[in-house]
Amino acid sequence: MKSDLFNGELYDKYIKRVIDLLGSLMLIILFSPIFFLISMAIKFNTRGPVFADTPERVGSKARLFKMFKFRSMIENAHMLLRHDPKLKTLYEQYKKNSYKLRKDPRVTYVGKFIRKHSLDELPQLINVLKGDMSLVGPRAYYPDELVDQQKKYPRTKNLVRKVLSIKPGITGYWQVSGRSEVNFDKRIAMDANYVENRSLWYDMKILIKTPWAMISGKGAV
């Protein structure tokens, strides 16, 4: 791995962390009115908390962390999908489709809009401030997702180890390229490719593409 200040580990430790801190702080201030409006819309639309009540995600070095997201589904949706007998068929489809559902009955009216435009992910800026995530990086996976998908795609194990060597990101290469239309094997390969080639210039390119990916909603579910 390159050791240049604008690439790899030194970049992660110094320049990228400074960009993450300053960038997330400025974006939280900029989007604060949107934070308020989304919070009110969620509370008026359905019963439950403003933030999603989902399990921890897998971060750098396989450490688990609580990811902040606006709630886009009914209350307790994550556990219901996995344990409610009525949703067994839906759960099997969920796993078969690389942990994505094109039509998910758990998604609320407000949730459809904020998911399409990735507005549900704005609270992850808090995770960036805390140091759990970066503005740009690989996807943050669920623990059971990684276990199940590596069984389905056994050749991805080395790629998964590489991806878990750095912090996950709010946005990333696959998010601005194919988003949810990309299956796990291709997605993890794209994430691993990012890890190998990450640099200041690569991150800037992804950040420039992110607003259009959000506005267009292409590939989102």
From TrEMBL:
Residue ranges occupied by any Bacterial sugar transferase domain in the UniProt entry: 16-215
Keyword set, alphabetical order: Membrane, Transmembrane, Transmembrane helix
Coiled-coil stretches: none
Keyword Transmembrane: yes
Keyword Ribosomal protein applies: no
Pfam families membership: Bac_transf
TM region(s), chain numbering: 21-42
Entry GO MF terms: phosphotransferase activity, for other substituted phosphate groups
Family: Belongs to the bacterial sugar transferase family.
PANTHER family in UniProt: COLANIC BIOSYNTHESIS UDP-GLUCOSE LIPID CARRIER TRANSFERASE (PTHR30576), SLL5057 PROTEIN (PTHR30576:SF10)
Protein name in the entry: Exopolysaccharide biosynthesis protein
Organism: Candidatus Gottesmanbacteria bacterium CG11_big_fil_rev_8_21_14_0_20_37_11
